[in-house]
Design brief:
Elements lengths: L1 H10 L3 H12 L4 H8 L5 H40 L18 H15 L3 E2 L5 E3 H4 L11 H4 L15 E3 L5 H9 L4 E10 L10 E11 L4 H16 L6 E8 L2 E14 L2 E4 L4 E11 L1 H6 L8 E8 H9 L12 H6 L5
The protein binds phenylalanine.
Length: 341
Amino acid sequence: LREDLLAAIDTAAGLEALDAVRVHALGKQGVITAMLKSLGKMTPEERQENGPRIHALREAVTDAIAARKEKLENAQLEAQLAAERMDMTLPVDAVRPGSIHPVSQVMDELAEIFADLGFAVASGPEIEDDWHNFTALNIPETHPARAMHDTFYFPKGEDGKQAHLLRTHTSPVQIRTMMQGKPPVRIIAPGRVYRSDSDATHTPMFHQIEGLVIDKGITLGHLKWTLETFLKAYFERDDIVLRLRPSYFPFTEPSAEVDIGYSYEKGRRVVGGSEGWMEVLGSGMVHPNVIKACGLDPDEWQGFAFGTGVDRLAMLKYGMDDLRPFFDGDLRWLRHYGFSA
Ligand code: PHE
């Protein structure tokens, strides 16, 4: 029987034939199954003699079936691989690759431009304290400028003190940088800022980029040259014209709001020339009180600072007219402006 079964297994031509042998030997009505059942009716002596033989037979047959099965399956797979070929030239379903967001793109562009001018990138926390966001920037508690900022405050602590707020501008990074090490300082600080404000050109969260230079003998001329140089590089145009308008910020003196000139090309408003003006940034010479608050001597160190809206710069360069879709995460919008495949 053993020889017959093993021969049948070895010559089984396919998986189905092999399974038939298995059923014949080990199935419910199988011959080996019957032998195993018969063990129960034997005397202990008979069982002792026959049991090991029957179990060994079952094991041998089971192993042989498994080995043959593997062989047949491998052969089947080989045959299948040989028979099926894939057409690698067929078009595939398009998967759109991820792409960069305009805000990130502009921040990268600006970091690169300023790196060429010798500026490092600095950062600070978005959850700020009152001192860094206001007080150290020469905005004392009673200052009306605090009301102008539409600040998001965290709830007061148990001691009634105002602990934290969402930074309303990137200017607190000026303070953190000046307090960190000795000048000279040349940094930009891009990042998120928050104000309770919302319409087509304002979102409660938006992005600014701060610039700060602290050194000896820094003048307004350095500020103007830096702004012109970076805006020309950013807009990739040589005909960028700037207008510095006297203004007021508590943390700079003198202060200037900077307008960029625009003109019309084929009826469309473009940056460059000077047919009209629009405001692009705030700037000025760092106020001596701010330098003092950071533990530096304003007679020794002077500098300039500026702050501008990254989202605004992106809109001007890439022609978007509404700020809100920047933060909707709608791929169709990104695609429309060439930011997604
Ligand atoms: N922090 C100012 C704002 O958010 C911009 C600014 C930065 C102005 C630095 C002057 C110097 O409006």
